[in-house]
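Tokens for chain A. Residues wanted.
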């Protein structure tokens, strides 16, 4: 039997891959339209793309990068919770809420990119992460 908390972890991983595909599907055509030759690009930086591509295209890339940041803590704390046998009940619920909030954050950032709603979603997901961290620390200490 596996821990229930593994399910939201897998869903967030799958969502991250969805964002990767969405980013590539919009960014590659925009790069071509901007005249970028992928065969000649060497050592470019994210800021180079921010200057060369439309903001709406870059929003997907920015969100993909965000999914590589705080969610890494989510994966780590959920793994601790799963290993301690406390990944059901309230911890699974917190994890599902975290994932739902991160998906909502992605959709806001990738489409309208309004900072206010993004910030509220980020803060709410951070509260869920803090709760998971507290529960993980209670399980191991």
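Reply:
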């Amino acid at each position: 039997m596996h821990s229930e908390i593994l399910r939201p972890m897998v869903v967030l991983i799958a969502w991250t891959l969805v964002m990767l595909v969405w980013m590539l599907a919009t960014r590659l055509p925009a790069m071509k339209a901007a005249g970028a030759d992928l065969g000649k690009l060497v050592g470019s930086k994210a800021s180079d793309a921010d200057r060369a591509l439309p903001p709406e295209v870059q929003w997907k890339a920015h969100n993909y990068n965000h999914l590589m940041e705080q969610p890494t803590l989510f994966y780590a704390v959920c793994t601790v919770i799963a290993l301690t046998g406390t990944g059901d009940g309230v911890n699974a619920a917190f994890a599902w809420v975290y994932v739902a909030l991160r998906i909502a954050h992605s959709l806001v950032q990738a489409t309208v990119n309004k900072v206010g709603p993004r910030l509220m979603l980020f803060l709410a997901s951070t509260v869920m992460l803090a709760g998971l961290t507290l529960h993980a620390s209670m399980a191991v200490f």
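The first helix runs from residue 6 to 33. The chain has one domain: 6-140.
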